[in-house]
Every structure is written in C-alpha cells, then in structure tokens.
Write a structure and sequence with these properties.
Two copies of one chain form a homodimer. Chain A is of the alpha/beta class. In chain A, the strands form seven sheets. In chain A, strands 10-11-13-15-18 form a five-stranded parallel sheet. Chain A has a four-stranded mixed sheet with strand order 3-4-2-12. In chain A, strands 9-8-21-20 form a four-stranded mixed sheet. Chain A has one domain: Trimethylamine methyltransferase-like (TIM Barrel).
C-alpha cells in the first residue's frame, strides 16, 4: 500500500492567546480576593472560612485567596464516567467525546400542528422517549420540559422517575435546594441498585446568580451533590449587558470567578468531587432587553469556556443548539447550527441543550429535538473525515472511467456510497418535483414524521421489577410528605 | 494599562496532515502524467504540446509532465485586486479577506408569497440591486439568476450591462466560449473606461467536465480571459459517486488534477494570469441520484480546497451558503450556516454563492439572499472577537455593581452595548408576545420585509453618461449580430 493516511480533527476555534487566558484568570482572582463573592448559604460560608477565606458575615461576602483556588484546581478529575443501569450507555465526560444531553427547563412546548402552549408531563414523557431513541444523545437529562400540570413541590418526583424508567441512559437530577437534590440522588441510587452511589450516576446544574452571588438553594444543591461524590456542572448564566458588563472580557472574568468559587467550595466539601466548568452565558440584546442565546457573542462564550476549562484541566459544559427563534425556521436552523459547530469544534465535554431548544431557553419542541440530532450527525460526519489510501484514491478506477464518463454503477461506488456518505434522515435531497409530489414538506413537517416514527417504534428499556417497585414506593412516600 | 490584548482568528478547519496534502498532489500528478486529461480544444492542445506535454490527438488526451506543473505553479500571483469604477469597491482576492459574491446560474426563483417559478430578467435586476445594497457583498457576480425570458444567444448582453449599471462593485462575466467571453470583457472595459483592461476587472468561472475533460466552450473561455490577463476561477464540479469516485480522496485527486491542468494552460497562454483554485464539488446522494451541495462531505471539499490552494500559494474559491432545501426553512438555515462557517473559517478568498442559493444550485431567492447576508455578518462578528484591556475588564464596574445587581443602566453598558454586540437585522430576538403581536413572522417573512426595504431605498450608483451610451450602443450592436 502506497498511502495509508487518515485525517485529523479540526483545531478548536480558540480566540484567546495564552496571555489572554492568563489575563482572565488574574482578573478573576482579583474579583475573588479583593471584591468578594456573596455566599448566602451559612454552612458554605463556614466551610470557606474554615479553609482560609475572609468572611464578611454581615454582608455574606466571602473573599477567597489565590492559594485556595490553586489548591482546589488540583483536585477534581480531568475526566469521569457517568453510569447508568445499562453499562453500554455509560458516558465519559472529559474523555474526548461530547456527552450530548437534552434541553432543560423550558416552560413552553411547540409541537407541529399545535402551536406553542404550556409544557406538560405528557410532553416530558415524549421527550424522554425521543432521548432514548436518538442514538447521538448520551444523557437523558432532567427537566426536559418544565411540566406545568404537576404540583411544583413534587415535580422532581414526577420527572426523575420518568427519566429513569423511560430511558436507560445516564440522567440528571434536581439541584434546587438540599431536599430535592437528596431525593434525586436517592432515586438514582435505587434505580441503579447502588444506594451508596459508589460511582457517578447523576449530575446537576448549579447556577449562580450573577453578578457575584451564590444563593442558598443552589449552594445547598452543590453541597448535596458534592457530599455524595456526584458531579456538578457549575454554570453561571452571566448575561453581558445585564448581569455582567457589556464588554465580553469583563463578563468572562466575572463568570470565571463565580465558577472558581464553586470549585473551591466543592473541593473543600469533598476533595475530588467531579466538576464540570459550565458556561451557559451569552448577552442581552439591549433593543429588547431579551437574553439572546443564539448570538455570535454567545458563541464567543462557548469558545472562551472551552479554552479556560482546558487551561484548568477540568471538563467543560457549554453550547448547545441554542437560538432565539420563536418557531422552526431558517433562523432556528442557522443559529442552532452555528452554536452547535462552535461547541463541537471546541471539544465541549458535556453539552446540555444539545437538542430541542427554541426561543432563548423558553420553548422545547420534539420536532426541533430530532432536527438537532440531524445537525449533530451531520457535524459528526464532517469531524470523521476521510482516509487517504490506495482503496480511497482508486487510481485504477480513475483510469477505467473514460473522460466525461461516470462512476455511478461501479462496484467501488456501491461499496462506499452508503458507508462513506452521511444519509440524511430529515433534511431533504429529493428532486424538487419529488419533494412537491410528496406534499412540499418543510423541515418542521418532515421532522414531525420522524417524531411520530420514533414514538411509534419506542420500546421501554428493561428495569428490574423489584427495583421499579421500590422506586415507585419511594416516590409515593416522597410526594405524600411533600404535599402534606 | 495593565492589559492590552486582542483575540486571534480561529485556526482553519484543516483535516489533512502535510503528508495528506502531498499524497493528493502525487496522485494528481499520476493522473496528469500517466492517465491523461482530455482537452477538446485544438488550440489548447497545441499550446500544451508546444510546452512539452504528450498529446494523443486521436483521443484528444493530453499527458502533462510534473515539471510543467511545478513550473506553472510558480507563476500566478498569490493575491490580486478586482477593480471597479468606484475604487472604494475594489476587492482584494488572496489578501486575507473573503470576497463575497452572489449566487450564480439558478434557473428558478423563489420569492415570498409567489412560490417557485422560472427566473426572469426582472428578478436579475432585483438581485443586482440587493447585491449593491448589502454591504457584505464584495462582488456583484454574473448570472445572478438564469433569466428564462430573454433569448439565450444574447443573455450575456442582457446580464453583464445590468450588473455594470445597477452596481458599482466588481462583476463577473460569461466564460461560455470565446465570443461571449470576449464580449463580456469588452463591456467591462467600456464601463471602466479602460478598454485595454490594464488591470483585473472581471473574473469568470471555468468549469471542467469531470472526470478528466476540458471541453471546447470552457477552454475557449479560459483562453480569452487569460489572454486579457483577467483572473479565472478554475472550478471542476466533481461529484463524488457520479463524476468522481465515491471515496473523497479519489475525487479530491481528480479535481486537483483538473485544476492543475488549467493552471498549466493559463500560464502557458499568459504567464502571471491570476488564477483562483476553485472547487464547487460535493457528492451525489445515491438514494435519489441528486447532487447534494449542503452535505457534510461538501464541507470536506471546502476544507480540502483551502488547504490545497494554500499549499500552492494561490487564492481559493469554494463554499457558499450551500444547501439542498427546496424552501426557506430550518434545513436551509442549518446547511447554509454550516457551509458558510467552514468556508469563512477556512479563509476562502473568493466565495461564489455567498448569498441567495437554494435547492442544489437550482433556485435563487431574494429572501434567502438577505438571510445569507445576516449569516455572514453574524459569522464576521464571531471572527472579530474581543479585546482584553482595562476598559473591557471593567473591574471598577464589577466592584460598583452589588451582588445580584445589574449593569443595564450603566454608562459603560450604554457605550459598549451597540458597538460590541451584533444587532440582527432579520433574526428575531423580541419576546414571544411581541413577536406574536407583530404577526408571528418566520424568518422567510421577516426577510421579505428586508428585501422590500432594500429595493425601496436602492439608488443607482453614478455612471458617466457618455460611457453608459457607449455601453448601450455596444450591447445593441452585439445583440443584433448575435440574433441575425
């Protein structure tokens, strides 16, 4: 064989030089050491004081010295595995592949033919089934939609068991205060028949309240997950122009300081707790006062997060198929593809909102979900590249086919045309006339066909009967306690 | 000032190692030296024979030795300027910026509210006006649509003068045989009051007929442009699975051999003729036998072309807002954004089809055109990056705004929020309710508003009266001769 070469992954779209990364870190340390971060949770303040931070109890402001940050950054692993009851579904976070996860928290749903309406627990079930069916999705998530038809006090008891029963992929859980966090962790322990959580099974999002605030609920959530050794996605949603400076540098440094505070706290509670450097940040469009997650500046946040987390050698969560469109149209396609590409090219380790989101985190759509999976497969095909060898150069074939001839009916073509080329599942490549004769379906309509196909062919993954019964009993008990 | 740093451009998404580039070149030389290229044009064969190629006259096959290729690659410039009558509109090709150019040759048009129909010369005028109005577009192009309501023998006399009158940006011309090429070059010479074409004013596309064929018409066009010292885009539209091997490596090597043949030919005719390494190639979806220009494999062709042309130190043409969608929807948005990003990140020097295209080169749409310009501005904003300095870190402001407070009404925010952040012109960022109250317009409808706005505010750029008269007379004479 004369040639035997493969292609390489494209380099990450990094915008900062090494000096830029250092400058951000330095300014973040200035914010933590000199200006201070408000930590509303008393136990957390005590832990930080104990570790050597200066605490202004009256204003709940904590000032964390650089040495504490340096020390904390040594402890979390550079990668970890999220486990599920089906070991084939375990997913590495920080191992080079991206764990693609459903969207999170949308109070509205858009379904083909229905228009937008409030999300329900039935939507949640459909979304969980689609998450199970779409192979590219690595983690089911939590809060796939925000169901408005269940009592809010027990929504974690409605959502977590559904995620655990309808899928056998790793899941996420509630981080909203100690109680819900603990219940979520207990449920995943039961489902995996490992009540002590000897391995990472469940991750949760810890949002800060930018600027410079760790509130009681989220800090409580962090404490529970860290004590249980379960990974946390520390995710300040700094919004440049509103909860952060207009200039990206300032918002980056602020977000980084809030994340580093969480790193210090988690490693003080339980050294080695897996941490994911999370950044769902973007900017506010001052014309409307709206949070724009589909903006190019949002893409700069993703690129920034990836570069920063790599400098700290911890996994990173950022990006997704993010967009501000109200419906499924050219804007949703363009913005989602842009944000997805920046994230995938940046080697984001954990991508929340990889599928399903619309309208600045406020709407989820099953049709958008499957379109996003089409986008993901598409970008993965580009990433896969091609081989350069005697078989793929096919010089004999190039000689055999005469000038102006064609390769269509050659065996070499038949052998390679279905394996080497991505076959779209939704995006249309028919002739115009064929497309028209089949109803002139746009991408929204074509996606609806795929949603129906997935839901029609969905099968529940096996779950041990005793375990399911135990889970159901736990949930019933939890609900009763919470509602009475 | 403590910090004064800027960001860098993201590295091009190159997939091949240096060995890969060399392997492609080697196999291309094998195709040119051993297998041979059919050159149907007699004068061209004579020129190549004279230069040292072996010519099989019976089969019109030319075999070009490596030394001739090496020699030819030394001659074309690594960059050049395309001129127009308004020097502010001159555009560099190969100088680091991308010259963004309209789409080319679509026989159908899709306009909002009308559905798809055959393109007309009135559509051509609207597209030229929009090309003039959209600042990001650097070259008006030619064949902005393929007008079906003018006699085909004189369509270059209909299109070129309209491009020259309705815009003052550089234009493109016909390459379809010597006569049309010559007429196009004469028209641009008149419009620029430089009948000897002392500088590059007009570029044209030279398509090969893959595999391995240079036909009479296109070779004739190449000869005319080269003799006039006008730049040519050598552009084999190899289609993997049909006019090239299924495996990308083979199709790349084939396309490269066809391009190098054009480089040798052009440099023999007129050494130093500006050449653009062009690659509008992609794959055929064997399920439908359709040419898929929106495919991820198409993106691999773009990345390949950029890397290959850089290795030869000549400018490159590839990519565009390419897609296979029949309408303006999530698919058009996603595929167009993907292809655009790969091209822009790859530092493509000349991007034909930067705006307007749908459905595998067969439909053009004014609404798609302005949406593509929105995409371009969006990606340019990402590329622009951000500064890291005392003003942008805004540490004083970070200290001033209390924990959980906001930056919205700060002077720093007012100063930066409109300049540092991209303000969309079509993509919607309003609240859902505001969007709904304004008619729930999707991106297609919103784009239609922008098309109307641009056409309503369009003003014809000045053109000297005598020159316009001379051009009109030239056109009338040419039409008469061609039609009688």
């Amino acid at each position: 064989m004369e040639y035997d070469l493969s292609t390489v992954e494209v380099p990450p779209p990094e915008k900062m030089t090494e000096e830029g990364v250092e400058a951000i870190h330095d300014v973040s340390i200035q914010i933590m050491e000199d200006i201070g971060i408000k930590v509303a949770h008393e136990e957390a303040r005590d832990i930080l004081a104990e570790a050597g931070a200066t605490v202004d109890e009256e204003n709940e402001i904590v000032r964390i010295p650089e040495s504490l940050v340096d020390d904390a950054l040594e402890k979390p692993p550079s990668s970890f595995t999220l486990h599920s009851r089906n070991p084939d579904r375990n997913t590495g976070v920080g191992d080079g592949d991206t764990t693609l996860t459903s969207t999170y928290g949308a109070p509205n749903v858009l379904r083909y033919g229905e228009g937008r309406r409030a999300s329900t627990i039935a939507d949640y079930e459909d979304l969980a089934k689609i998450a199970q069916m779409e192979e590219v999705i690595g983690c089911t998530g939590y809060n796939l939609c925000e169901p408005t038809d269940v009592p809010q006090e027990v929504k974690h008891y409605e959502m977590v068991p559904r995620s655990l029963k309808l899928t056998d992929k790793p899941v996420m859980g509630s981080t909203y205060g100690e109680e819900r966090a603990r219940a979520s962790l207990e449920m995943v322990g039961i489902a995996n028949d490992d009540r002590d959580l000897s391995k990472p099974y469940m991750t949760g999002i810890i949002n800060t309240v930018s600027p410079r605030t760790w509130d009681t609920r989220m800090t409580g959530g962090l404490l529970e997950y860290a004590k249980a050794g379960q990974p946390v996605l520390i995710s300040p949603a700094v919004m440049a122009n509103a909860s952060g400076p207009s200039t990206l540098a300032g918002s980056f440094a602020l977000a980084n300081a809030e994340i580093l505070t969480g790193v210090v706290l988690s490693q003080q509670i339980n050294p080695g707790t897996p941490i994911v450097y999370g950044l769902p940040s973007s900017n506010v469009d001052v014309r409307y006062g709206s949070f724009s997650i589909g903006s190019p500046e949002g893409g700069l946040f993703v690129s920034f997060a990836a570069q920063m987390a790599r400098s700290y050698d911890i996994p990173v969560r950022a990006g997704g198929t993010l967009n501000d469109s109200k419906t499924i149209d050219d804007q949703s396609g363009a913005e989602s593809m842009f944000q997805l590409m920046i994230a995938m090219f940046s080697d984001i380790d954990f991508m929340l909102h990889a599928a399903g989101i619309l309208n600045s985190y406020s709407t989820v759509s099953p049709e958008k979900y499957v379109l996003d999976c089409e986008r993901i497969r598409y970008v993965q095909r580009f990433q896969r590249g091609y081989d350069l060898n005697d078989e793929t150069f096919a010089v004999d074939l190039l000689e055999e086919v005469e000038p102006g001839g064609h390769f269509l009916n050659k065996r070499h073509t038949l052998e390679h045309s279905k394996t080497d080329h991505y076959m779209t599942k939704i995006f249309n490549r028919q002739s115009y006339d064929d497309w028209e004769s089949k109803g002139s379906k746009d991408a929204f309509a074509a996606a609806h066909d795929r949603v129906n196909e997935l839901l029609d062919t969905y099968e529940r993954p096996p779950l041990d009967e005793d375990i399911e019964q135990e889970l159901d009993e736990y949930v019933e008990r939890g609900k009763e306690e919470a509602l009475n």
